[in-house]
Amino acid sequence: MSAKAVDKYGRWRSVSVSFRASPTEVEQIHFAVQLSGLTKQEFVIRTLLNQEIHVSANPRVYKALVCRMMQILDELHRINAGERIDGDLLDTIRMITCLLGDMKEVNV
Length: 108
What we know:
- The chain is an all-alpha fold.
- The chain has helices at residues 23-36, 40-48, 59-78, 87-107.
- It is built from 4 helices and no strands.
- Helix 1 runs antiparallel to helix 3.
């Protein structure tokens, strides 16, 4: 019999948890996971347990930020003057703003 796979704290995670989400919510979750630098499992567990998620600046995080900012820029160009900005887009902008602010504080 093979050895049980445990995390770095010796916990054997034998229970599976799943939930349903909309395609937009899944995209937002994937983006947040990319920026965190954690695995999706670790990110969801820390988020649900209200534990802090520390993001360290690295090339993967930088690339994810640049890619998302380009998408936001394209969306803002698409929006006509006077139109309302989508709530999901505003949430993404807020998340990136907070992340960049946190990264600036750490690097100062």
